[in-house]
Structure formats: C-alpha cells, structure tokens
Amino acid sequence: MRRLTWFNATSLTLGFAFLYIPMIVVIIYSFNESRLVTVWGGFSTKWYGELLQNEAFLDAAWVTFKVGFFSSIIATILGTMGAYVLVRGGRFYGRTLFSGMIYAPLVMPEVITGLSLLLLFISIGLDRGLFTIILAHATFSMCYVSVVVSSRLVSFDRSVEEAALDLGCTPFEAFRLVTLPIIAPAVISGWLLALTLSLDDLVIASFVAGPSATTLPIKVFSSIRLGVSPEINALSTILIGLVTIGTIMASLSTKRAVMRRERAERMAEQAG
Amino acid sequence: MPETVFEPWNDPAANPLIQFRNVTKRFGDFTAVDNLSIDIFEKEFFALLGPSGCGKTTMMRMLAGFETPTSGTIMLDGQDISPIPPNKRSVNMMFQSYALFPHLTVYDNIAFGLKRDKLPPDQIDARVKEMLRLVQIEKFGQRKPEQISGGQRQRVALARALAKAPKLLLLDEPLSALDKKLRQDTQFELMDIQEKTGTTFVVVTHDQEEAMTVASRVAVMDHGKLKQVDTPDRIYEAPNSTYVADFIGDVNIIEGHGKAQGDTMAISWAEGQPPIIGTPSKPMDDGNVSFAIRPEKVAISAERPADRNNVVQGKVLDIAYLGNLSTYHVQLPSGIVIKAQTANSRRRASRPFTWEDEVWLSWTDTAGIVLER
Ligand SMILES: Nc1ncnc2c1ncn2[C@@H]1O[C@H](COP(=O)(O)OP(=O)(O)O)[C@@H](O)[C@H]1O
Ligand SMILES: [Mg+2]
Q1: Does the record's keyword annotation contain Chloroplast (chain B) (predicted)?
Q2: Could you say which of B207, B224, B242 is where a domain stops?
Q3: 148-187 in A: which are within 8 Å (CB) of B?
Q4: Which residue of A91, A223, A228, A237 is 20 to 30 Å from B35, comparing CA positions?
C-alpha cells in the first residue's frame, strides 16, 4: 500500500467534503427536536414518527413506487427488444436512422420531453394520473435500457447464438435460452437504471402528473416551497439510507463476481 | 473379410451425401464463393484448404444454413436444403471460436442439443456421458467453460456438435487455437473419433499439413474457386496447377517451352542446356509450361550421375538444416535457384557439401510434373 501524499489527502478530503457535507447536515437535522432548522433542540426521532403519520407523503411514496416498478419493467422489455433488433436485425432499411434516434431522447432537455408528452396525452384525451406518469417514465427510460443492453450485445460473440440455432433451437428459443441469460447482467443494470431514473424524476412527472396522483419528488418539491420541514429531512435520511444499502449491495455483488472469475481462471490453469 | 479401399468418389454408383452445384455466394459485389461444384460422400473426412479469406467459412455457413447461396443449389442426401432453416438440418457445426454457452456447465452444453430434441432424460444423460468419455473430459462435466483450458474447450465444442449424431459434422479450423504438439495429437484423435462414429466430417483449415494428415480428400481453394479436389497423395504428387503445387509443401518451379515426346515432355528452359524431361499432369499440346518438382526428389551429388537424362550443375548458395532433413539451395548458371532435400540418416554426419561447392543435381524422368502455364 502506498501512503497518501499531502496533496492527495487534501484533494480527497475536500472532494468528499463537498459531496457529503450537505447530506450529513440533512441527516443531523432530521434528528433535531426543534421545528426550526437553524436551532438545535436536542436529539429526537419524532419527525420520523410524524412522517409515518403523514398520509400525503405515504401516498406519494406509494405512487412513486408503483410508477418506478411498472415503468422500469416496461422500459426494460421494450428497451431490450429494441436493442436486440438494432444490433442483431441485420441491415434493414433505415436502421442507422433508428439507431441514431434511440439516443435522441437521452440528450433532449427534460422540459421538452415532458411538454411533448403532456401535449400528446391531452390530444388523445388521456386523463393525467398514475397511468400517464408510468407511460412517460417508460418512454424516456427505455432509451437508457436500450443503450446499456446494446453495448453488451455488440460485445458478445454472435456465433454463440448461431450455435444454439445449429443445435436445434428456434430463433425465439435461442434468444430465451442463450442470449437472454448471457445479457442478463446488462438487462438488470438497465432495469436498475430505469428504476432509479423514475424514482428520481421531477420535471417530466410534474408535466404529466394529475391531481389524482403525485410522486414523492413532486410532493417534496412543492412542500419545500412552503418552507423546509423537519419531516422532509427525515424522509431524505430514509432515502439516503436506502440508496446506501443498495450501493453497498451492488458493490459487494461485483466483488463476488470478480472473485468468482478469478477462481475460474485458476481452475482453468490447473485443468491444464 | 477383404479390405476394401474407401474410395466412393471413384464409384459411379455411389450417391454423394453433399452436392454443391454451381454455388455462388456474393456479399454485395464481392464474390466469396464462385460457381463451385463438389460432391462429398458419406463417411468422408473432407478438408477444405486455402488461404485466409478464400471463402472456406462461407461454404461451411451455407451448409449449416447461416448463409444462403446467391445462386446454385446445395443438396444434402439428394434434397435441396436451401429452404430448411439451420435448426432443422441434420448438420452440426463446431465453430471456429468454439461458441460454447458461457452460462451452462460442460455437461449442459453437451446436453443442449439433445434437450431440444425432447429426448427422455435418462437417454440424454447416457448420451452426454458417452460424449464426455469419447473426448476424455469426464472429470470436467460440472465445470463452466471459463473454468477449463483452451484444449478442453475445444473438446467440449466437438462433443457438443457430435452429441446429436448428425449426418454431417462441420469443423471450422477446429485446431487452430492449439499449439503444435497438442494439435498433432488431436488430429489423430479426430480421425479416430471420425472412424468410431462414422460421421461425415468436413473440416476447414488453412494448415496444409493438417489437411494432408486427416483428410480422405482435400479441396484446395483460391479466391472462392476450387483449384483441385483429390486425395492427399494425389494432391501432393500430381497437382494440376502451379498454385496447388506451391500451396501444398515445397516445390521447385522451372518455366520453359514443352514439346511432347511420347509419354513424356521435353522442356527447353535455358540457352545451351539440354531439355528437362518431365511427365505431363494430363495430355497437353506443345507450348509454354511449368515444370514442378519436389525438393526431396532432386538428388544432389559431387560427381555427374551417368544414368539420368535430367542433370544440371550449380553452386550451393544456402543450406537449411532441419534436424532430420537438410535443404540445399543450389544456384544454376542461369540464375534459377533449385532446392534439393536429403535425409540426415546418420547423427552428426559431416555434411557432404558446403557453401560455394560445385554440385550436380539430377532427377528421374517421372519425378517432376509438367503443368500448363
Ligand atoms: N457477412 C459478410 N459480409 C461481407 N463479406 C463477407 C461476409 N462473410 C465473409 N465475407 C467475406 O468473404 C470472404 C471469405 O470469407 P471466409 O469464408 O470467412 O474466408 P475463410 O476462407 O478465411 O474462412 C472474405 O473476404 C470476407 O471478408
Ligand atoms: Mg474462416
């Protein structure tokens, strides 16, 4: 192990301070007895209790969860199908155009995506609510899934799929039994990405959400405008906790995968 | 039982298993396979030999069903196979990259094709175990492909392709990833397995030694065209073109003007030199020809041999010592360099000739072959 130089240590400290001090402040204040943000009134968990009593927040959280769940699944299925056709479909007419178009929503400003979806829903007479948010989220996160999955498809040997056909699979069986298990990690990453994007989204959701359904980010944002409440701090702390657990689990599983691969390489060497 | 020679290609009554009839394959305006016709017979070990990019893999892929011919037909067992998708053909392929399923164990890789046929589980199990035994990887059945070595992966690929007992097994450069020693051992194993299973093998290779070792017949290809299809010894001893002669093994080529003289041909090749006598590869008219002779058929001596028509004098330019053999590069007065090979039967025998020595080269009238130019 190399020791950190003075310069490196400073950069590290400053960088991480910049990233994490705001969150630490939120966490500390979520345990503040006092309602006032600027005054420390002693340690308390009462805001967590109040949060759990707050119907509006709980409803919004439930909506967010449902939207994330359904939209990410739709996005994963459509995105994977799109990636498969664009990468494996051969050279059909207009393929380059389609490949380019799948990236366009990634760079489109969110307000524009939100606005166009809103106009679409109004023009086809769809009532805004849970369903429209799910559709909107599936639409924009599907592109991300498709990008993640196609990069995996490009990198894996086409002949593995041909081998499946050669051994008697129909094209659909070859996809289900061979392609899908091989690209599964990319599909799962794409799904997690779609889920995160959906849970995160404020702009698009605020265009397409209606009075019947509000997501958590919208709820938080609108209540902040009436003043910071300690309940929001508590909520944020819970979210930070969840994200932390998720990240740790993800990095542990990556580490396990690396160890598994190293073990496989050792076995291959010994097998001679 | 009298030993019958396996030569269905000489039997007019034999029905070929595979027939390529004027098959052409184009990619855009590039012609990968050019109006090619071959018959391949049951139980043959047929080798496609040619330099990289000459269309060997494309031929395999047309047989397996991954490419369709631009024109012409391919018949399997007398049936046109172009409308049959890959999964319905009784043809299996061992891929150049092995293409093992990384998420399945060795056992499940081999069982994969059998499961598609919906065989009963105990039958599948028995067949997989038989295959594991055949290619000698019983110990590794429960491992993933990433947990075994390259040579073992190649065996798994072979076992997987053989498991369904196809009528025809296609092997695309099956041994190219192995080092020389292992490759030679595996060649003999392949021949053994081919004999045991009685499957027809079509093997692609760019290694001429490999083709000569394993094959019952060899097809030499160049730029999508067939140059010659014949048994390994005929390809070596009686090539029909300088391309084939040059591609297979080492050869000396002398160009000149040929004149028929009974069964042989006299070739004037240099001013003031007696003509070379050679045997034509087929009946041919007088005209410009190439004379091809293998280095091991050229004798080298210090004295002029008295009993031969073909005698030339030259100077030793270079000597390549190959352990069991020595190759002398001899320059003739006209500037041509001829290679002569001798076997080193005695250990550390002092070399009879050295650089700059004046030597005589000679060969019999039937040692060299006359080819059209
Ligand atoms: N799908 C394809 N599209 C365009 N060109 C191809 C394709 N497949 C093969 N070719 C070309 O056809 C030629 C023959 O290829 P191949 O059959 O793979 O040769 P090899 O004898 O080395 O196996 C090569 O020049 C290759 O570039
Ligand atoms: Mg090839």
Answers
A1: no
A2: B242
A3: 157, 159-160, 162-170, 173, 177-178, 181-182
A4: A91
Residue A249, C-beta contacts closer than 8 angstroms, at least 6 positions apart: none
Say yes or no: B175 and B44 in one domain.
yes
Q: Which of B26-30, B33-37, B87-91, B269-273 bottoms out in mean pLDDT, i.e. has the lowest?
A: B269-273
Instruction: Flag whether B1 is in a domain.
Output: no
* Topology of domain A56-227, CATH: MetI-like fold (1.10.3720)
Mean pLDDT of B123-140: 91
- pLDDT, one tens digit per residue, over B79-92 is 999 899 999 998 99
Environment class of B129 (CB within 10 Å of its CB; exposed 0-12, middle 13-18, buried 19+): middle
Same structural domain, B283 and B342:
yes
Residue B351 has a pLDDT of 67
What averages of pLDDT result for each successive group of 10 residues across chain A (272 residues)?
A: 82 92 89 82 88 88 94 96 86 80 85 93 91 93 93 89 94 93 93 92 91 88 82 88 90 90 83 67
Last residue of a domain, one of B210, B242, B274: B242
Burial A40-69, CB ≥16 within 10 A → b, else e:
eeeeeeebbeebeebeebeebbebbeebbe
Give B146's contacts in chain A (Cβ within 8 Å).
261, 264-265, 268
The structure's pTM equals: 0.81
pLDDT digits (tens, 9 = 90+) for B256-312: 999 988 888 899 988 888 889 988 888 888 889 999 999 999 999 888 888 888 999
Q: Are residues B325 and B285 part of one domain?
A: yes
Question: Is the minimum CB–CB distance between A34 and chain B shorter than 8 Å?
Answer: no
Q: Is the pLDDT of residue B3 over 60?
A: no
ipTM: 0.81
Q: In this structure, are B138 and B108 located in the same domain?
A: yes
Percent of chain B scoring above 70 in pLDDT: 97
Q: What pLDDT does residue A1 have? A: 59
B140 and B118 in one domain?
yes
Residues B61 and B141 in one domain: yes
Which residues of chain A neighbour B171 with C-beta distances below 8 Å? none
Q: Write out residues 90-149 of A within 8 Å (CB-CB) of B.
A: none
CA–CA separation, A179 and A153 (whole Å): 9
Residues B156 and B269 in one domain: no
The Cα-based distances of A48 to A45, A103, A215, A236, A242 in angstroms read: 6, 41, 19, 11, 15
Q: Are B245 and B253 in contact (CB under 8 A)?
A: yes
- In angstroms, the CA A262 to CA A255 distance is 11
